[in-house]
Amino acid sequence: MNTPDLALGAIWYVVFLFSTTCHEGAHALVAKLGGDTTAAEGGQVTLNPIPHIRRSPFGMVVVPILSYLVGGWMIGWASAPFDAAWQRQYPRRSGWMALAGPAANFSLMLLAGIAIRVGLAAGYFQAPALLHSYASLVVPANAADPTFLTSALSILFILNLLLGTFNLLPVPPLDGHAGIMVLMPEGVAQRYIDWVHHSRNFALLGLIIAWSLFDRIFQPVFFFALRTLYAGVHSS
After folding, report:
1. Which of these, 71, 73, 137, 156, has the minimum number of CB atoms within 10 Å of its CB?
2. Which residues fall within 8 angstroms of residue 17, CB to CB, at 6 or more apart?
3. pLDDT at 213
4. With contact defined as beta carbons under 8 Å apart, do 176 and 183 qualify?
5. Element (H, E) at 140
């Protein structure tokens, strides 16, 4: 692996840490606001990645680095603890807690998109003639190669679009499976929680199903996001 690849990997990892920390911190904050202080007492209502790394070192360090070495992009995970009794007592609050993580990711994606659009409008950035990778949504004006800034903004946009979309899939253990409880009557949600707790062995199956279907789901989402990002913009 050459020096540019290592530099790009470092940018990926910084963006991954920040994005995942915001995701888990949002879970912890909304749970605290809803009356469950479990994650807050563990120090996870924070933008400091250290408490999240301590809780999930494999998902926050090992898997992201391996996924970049193998595929040229990063994926991983972390988790925020919660009180199961609180979840059963307040299933809708638990649903909002679950949705807070993807909401944080989509918020970061929107902020990155706004920064990219401002750069395009000001003439600092231009859309690449071809989309070669997940790290080149924009390049500097009158330059062929991405810089640190354009790479970081591109990765921030794409990674958070991916994390937000993937986590919204309604299968255990992803956030979407709990998020759907905001739409359920309380009694139905409590029976649903009981079913999920008695079906923990299906969590791995849920991940396999989600991963196998995700490419078909994410591709149209990704290209819709690109068309929206580049609306009215012409690459030079």
Report:
1. 71
2. 49, 53, 60
3. 83
4. no
5. strand 139-140
List, in sequence order, the alpha helices (H) in 125-202.
Answer: 148-167, 175-179, 186-197
Tokens 């080149």 identify what position? Answer: 136
- The predicted model gives 63-88 an average pLDDT of 90
Residue 12 and residue 28: Cα distance in Å, rounded?
24
Model confidence over 123-180: pLDDT tens digits?
A: 999 887 766 666 678 888 877 678 889 999 999 999 999 999 999 999 888 999 999 9
Contact 28, 80 (CB under 8 A): yes
Count of CA atoms in the C-beta half-sphere (13 A) of 118: 7
Q: How many CA atoms lie within 13 A of 182 on its CB side?
A: 12
Contacts of 50 (CB under 8 A, 6+ apart): none
Residue ranges per structural domain of the chain: 3-228
**CA-CA distance, 62 to 196, in Å (whole number)?**
29
Write out pLDDT tens, residues 25-39: 999 999 999 999 999
Q: Is there a cis peptide before residue 170, judged by omega within 30 degrees of 0?
A: no
Task: Look at residue 125 and give its three-state secondary structure.
Answer: strand
- CA 228, CA 62: separation in Å to the nearest integer? 34
- The DSSP letter of residue 117 is H
Asked whether 91 and 193 are in contact (CB, 8 A), the reply is yes
Q: How far is CA 182 from CA 79, 179, 186, 197, in A?
A: 20, 6, 9, 18
Per-residue pLDDT for 236 more than 60?
no
Bridge partner residues of 125 (DSSP)? 140
